[in-house]
Each structure stands twice: as structure tokens, then as C-alpha cells.
From TrEMBL:
Keyword terms: Hydrolase
Domain AB hydrolase-1: 28-258
GO molecular function, one term: aminopeptidase activity
SUPFAM superfamilies found in the cross-reference section: alpha/beta-Hydrolases
Keyword Hydrolase included in the entry's annotation: yes
One of the record's GO cellular component terms: membrane
Organism: Dactylosporangium aurantiacum
Family: Belongs to the peptidase S33 family.
Protein name, entry field: Alpha/beta hydrolase
Pfam families: Abhydrolase_6
Keyword Transport (UniProt): no
Length: 267
């Protein structure tokens, strides 16, 4: 299978970041999950290319980007800024998924003038992760370990409640396949967990004037009440829960997902 060639963007420390642009219109930048994974927004780009200039990218050390640290939240925020500098002349819409939702939120809090709108998809909120992670661990306790493709596909299959389609969806997530960057995952997850324990992110969110759309799938293995305090703290927020969808709600309910995002398109 051929892979999109993309274009390299240099971070301010010289790290090469893979990017891919399509469509026409105001910029929409996808911020993928992980950490340690890669962009899987091909379907999303196709969904929105008629309305936006879509920008996909792999975070440093991941996928098609240069495998090079350091792996920190501050570095990730700066890298996202480099992608915006290269591909967004004015304020952009950020669509962040899972860990990418947290990264996009953090960027928006630091640089609200660069963000037209934040779409926060399947994130895990702003509370100490010990409030929700035990529930998640209980729900996933029987999943296999391993970082090889076959093991990860089996893990990802559990993300989809429609068991007839789960394996197909998980295979699509893993195509193309790149080595998972475990160092990136462990390091950034530990830093984010520490910051959530030690800082009052809700107070920062209460000052944000950028409109935020939160999109959840009701069947996500990560409990959706973990996002309640974030929604309560944001001054300009709309929340959409897609019934029957899970952690990748655009896969299971593409019409509901695109309707939610495009319903706020002119904001």
C-alpha cells in the first residue's frame, strides 16, 4: 500500500515532523492520540476536506516523523506551534483526539490567539487520573499485552462495541503500521499525570474564551464523567455525546460526528 508522501516541517530544535495537507478553506489541524502513536486521521481528512484545509501530522518520535526526543508536554506544544506556523496563516481549528485532545487543550490555553475553535474528542478530562483510571483498568484487565502489531490490534478491537466490525476497525487503525514509541508514551504520560495532580487546570480553563466542542462516544472504555469538570470549567463549550459510539466516534457514527463538528463550523 502506498503511503502519503507529506511534507517535512522543522521544529525549532530541528526535529523533522511529517505533515500532510489537503482540502481548501480555513485550517483544521488534527492532533492524534497516543502518546507514542501516529496520525490516523485519513478518514477525518476526507470527511472535512470540502469545508477545511486539513492538516495532519505525526508527533515527534512517532510514525513518519523523526525518532528523536525530548518527549515532554512543553516540547509537544512547541511542535504543534511549528505545524501551525507552517500550515495556518491565521487562527486554526484544532481537533484533538484522546491524548491529542489534552495536547490541543494545552496549546489553546497557552496560545488562544492562534486557535479559532477547539474540538476535544474522547479526552480524559483535567482531574487527577486516579479518579477515572481504576475504572478503565478494570474494564481492560483481560486485554493482551505486547506492542507488536498483532497484539495491539487485539487490544484495539476492544475499543469497538460492535463486535461484528471491531476487528475490521482495529485493522484499519493499524494500517499503515509503525513501531509504537514506548519511551515517548511512558515519559509524557507520567509528566501529564504529575501536572494534573499538582496544578489547577480548571482555573486556567475558566479564563479561556475560545469556543470548545467536546465530543464523546457513550461506550468509550474511559468513563465519560471524567470530562465533566472540564466541561463545567469552560466558559464557551458545547458537548455532544454520540450514543453507541466509543473511543473513535467518527468511525462508528460518521454522520453524527461530522454533523457535530460542522454544526459549529461558522463559530
Amino acid at each position: 500500500m502506498s503511503r502519503p508522501a507529506g511534507r517535512a516541517v522543522l521544529a525549532d530544535d530541528g526535529c523533522r515532523l511529517w505533515t500532510l495537507v489537503g482540502g481548501d478553506g480555513p485550517p483544521l489541524v488534527f492532533v492524534h492520540g497516543g502518546p507514542g502513536l501516529w496520525d490516523m486521521a485519513g478518514d477525518l481528512a476526507t470527511m472535512f476536506e470540502g469545508h477545511y484545509r486539513t492538516v495532519r501530522w505525526d508527533q515527534r518520535g512517532c510514525g513518519r516523523s523523526q525518532r528523536r526526543g525530548p518527549y515532554t508536554l512543553d516540547r509537544s506544544v512547541a511542535d504543534l506551534g511549528a505545524v501551525l506556523d507552517a500550515h495556518a496563516a491565521g487562527p486554526a481549528t484544532l481537533l484533538g483526539h484522546s491524548w491529542g485532545a489534552h495536547l490541543a487543550l494545552e496549546y489553546t490555553l497557552r496560545h488562544p490567539e492562534r486557535v479559532r475553535r477547539l474540538v476535544y474528542v474522547a479526552g480524559t478530562g483535567i482531574d487527577d487520573e486516579d479518579t477515572w483510571k481504576p475504572v478503565y483498568r478494570q474494564r481492560t484487565r483481560d486485554l493482551p499485552g505486547g506492542l507488536d502489531r498483532a497484539s495491539v490490534v487485539r487490544q484495539w478491537t476492544a475499543e469497538f462495541p460492535d463486535r461484528a466490525q471491531a476487528a475490521t476497525h482495529a485493522e484499519a487503525m493499524a494500517t499503515p503500521w509503525f513501531e509504537i514509541n514506548r519511551e515517548c508514551s511512558v515519559t509524557i504520560n507520567a509528566e501529564v499525570a504529575r501536572r494534573l495532580r499538582e496544578t489547577d487546570l480548571a482555573a486556567r480553563c475558566r479564563t479561556l474564551r475560545v469556543p470548545v466542542l467536546i465530543v464523546d462516544g457513550s461506550e468509550d472504555l474511559r468513563p465519560r464523567w471524567a470530562v465533566d469538570s472540564l466541561a463545567a470549567a469552560l466558559p464557551d463549550v458545547r458537548r455532544v455525546v454520540l450514543r453507541g459510539a466509543s473511543h473513535l466516534p467518527w468511525v462508528e457514527d460518521p454522520d453524527g460526528f461530522s454533523g457535530a463538528v460542522l454544526g459549529d463550523h461558522r463559530r
